[in-house]
Structures are given as structure tokens and as C-alpha cells.
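Fold this: Arginine N-methyltransferase 2
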Amino acid sequence: MDDPAFELETDLSTQSILLAAANHDITALRDLLRNTSANVQDLETGFTPLHAAIAALEPDDKPSGDEKLNGHTNGESPEEPAAERKEEIEAAVKTMKLLFQNGAIWNDLDAQGETPGCIAYRLGLRELYELCVDAGVRAELLLSRMDEYQLLGDAGSDDDEDEDEEEEEEGEEVVVVGETGDIMAEEDMATSEAMGLAPGDESTQSANYLSSTLKFDRDRLLDESDNGVMMAWETTLMRRSAELLVPTEGLRVLNVGHGMGIIDGIFQEKKPKAHHIIEAHPDVLKRMKEQGWHEKPGVVVHEGRWQDIVPGLVEKGDLFDAIYFDTFAEEYKALREFFTESVIGLLDPAGGSDGEGGKFGFFNGMGADRQVAYDVYNKIVEMDLFEAGFDTEFETIPVPDLDSEGEWEGVRRKYWVLKDYKLPTCTFIG
């Protein structure tokens, strides 16, 4: 609509609700929310009411831009607020709860690329930050469950499919699934950069990745769009994971996703009794043959997608003492499918070095381009693992400053910006 009067009215409404949120005026905010969305955004700052409610607590001596990274001070945890700010924070908490009750989106981005949680984290407002994390967990769990229901609906008649196609043609909202498993409306894809696939990064989608040409460097593996598939800085993390999964020699190991061969090389140092590797990318498989992986003692290389290989291993009754999972260009729901449907059939409940059960691990990089997203997905994966019958222990491992060490030079997009990595080790409950 091009009516200037309408546009002015809309802008005034947006400014009114932003002001009420910033002032933590619950009464005014409740009245405004009757006719205005909790997700309106200021055209200049990109602030939503959630952003405004949190940013209102920003002190005058705020950190400079050089101290921030993707909306937070890299690696620093929120500290307890000063006692004199207690009333302000309580008012902000009530404001945020009201906004979330009215459908506020936890990961909308402002003009600076910050989510509301990023602002709370940067300002050290722990209680407000945890509200954002909890809201993110609720939203992502709900959306993932809705996705499951949608999959059930997809099994309907051809008439249903035709109706869906007609709706899309008529301009209906299309639902898209991001790389890390969050579900987004097409109109909200601008916010997906925080949680998953960036616009134009088609090679990080599974089908495109498998048909792309990979570039092997001495310390990194890149796809044809220069996205990092695997990099040498991950070695410390994988070595520690291997130590926890395979503490002694002579165990049976399965690794899904060979990549540069970092963790498989470490597994080989443990002289495994059996060492199975599942790898789908033709370029990686070619390099594996050149490096002689198919001839290494105990090694069995399965060429193809794990979704196609694993059912055969389960059918044969193959069991393992340790399983590691690290694939590229797959959504979180692929990882969830793997540990809910595959690991339980492959991990020996009486295996391991002590006979008390095998162990499962994975590269925990979901949402690692900002702290709030990482914390949300860590809670989600722990809950999903528990529901699948696994107890998970996380070990915090410091990550060096990858920027200062030049690790991202020549890489299209950083997939890790955080100071600490939470390394998961999973065992069967009981």
C-alpha cells in the first residue's frame, strides 16, 4: 500500500510499542499488543520490542565495536548484574515475558546483526539472556515437532500435493529448513544467517555439496564456494573426543564423515580391532584411496550416504564400542535421526573398554556463529539425546582466537566464533 497516511500510522504504532518496551511500561505495552505485533521492527535500527526492552539497560560506557564479535564479547559469560539495577532488570524480565507470550521471535536480527539474546549476553544480563535461550529452546522444539507432523501429512493423497502446489503459486508462505535444523518462513530468511544457511550458500545444502568439487589444502578442506568443510584447528577437539570414546586399543570404531581424516587418523593410533568409515563425497573417497585408507588394517570404507549404509550394518548385526558423527551440509534433524534410529542399533550396550557400554560422540558445532544460538542447540540436543535413551556429558574445551591466527583467511564464512567448545560424550542411560 502506497498511502502515506497509512505508512505514517504504521510507523507511529511501531515507535509507540518500541517506546513502551524500552520503558518497560507493561500497561501501555499490553494495550498496544492488542492491535500491534510483538515482532514489528524499526526501519533504521532493526529493533524489535525485545531488542528495545534489553537495550534500554545498556550503560553509557558500553564496549567499543572492536570488543564485540557477532553481537557478543567473544568468550565472556554474562555476569551477575549490580544490585542497584535489580528493579530495572525485574521490569525488563516482566516486559520480555509479556512479549514472548504474545509471540515475540527470539532470534530476529537488528541492523547490527544482533539478536535480543546477543544484546543481553554482551551486556552481561544473565537473567535476560537465559530468558532468550529458554524461548529459543521452546520455539525450536515446537518447530521441529511441527516439521515431524508435516512429514506425516506429506504421505497423503496426490490431491493434497496439488493443493499445496496451488497454495505456493498463490503466494502462500513457504517453510524452509536451515542447515542447523531450525525452520524459517521464506519471508524471515534474512534472520537465518544467525542460525543456518546464509542466502546464496547453496553448496552447503546436502545434494549440492555432494556434487560439488572440493579443495584440499594442507590445513583445511573447502567446498567450491570456499566454505570450510573441515579445518586443522579442529584437531584438538577431535583428539580429546577420540580419547574419551576410545580410551584403549583393540576396540571397534565407526566414524561417519571422513573429511580430512583427522579423527580417523587418531582412531588408527588406537589400533582398533575394527574401523569402519562412512563417506559419501566422491572427492574425499578418491583422496582416501590415494592415501591407502582401504588397505589399512581393520579398516572398512563404506562409500555412500550414511542413510543408505547404516541399515545394512544394523541388519548384519555389526556392533561398535565407539561411534563418531561429523557430516557436512546436513540439518540438525539428520543428527537427531542418526542417534534416535541408528546409534541405538549399532552401539554395543555391553561394549567399551570396561564392558559397561559403548560411547557416542559428534562434532558439536550447531549454531556456533553466535553464543545464544549455540546455547539453544546444546540444550535441544541434550534433551533429544535423553529422550532417545542417552546420558550426555559435556566437557568445555577452550578454542584459540582463530581470527588472530589467520584460520579464516580465504574462507567464505566463519562457522566458529566462540571461545569455548562443549564436547559431548554420550552413553546409554543406566
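The two ends are 61 Å apart (CA to CA). The chain has a mean pLDDT of 86.
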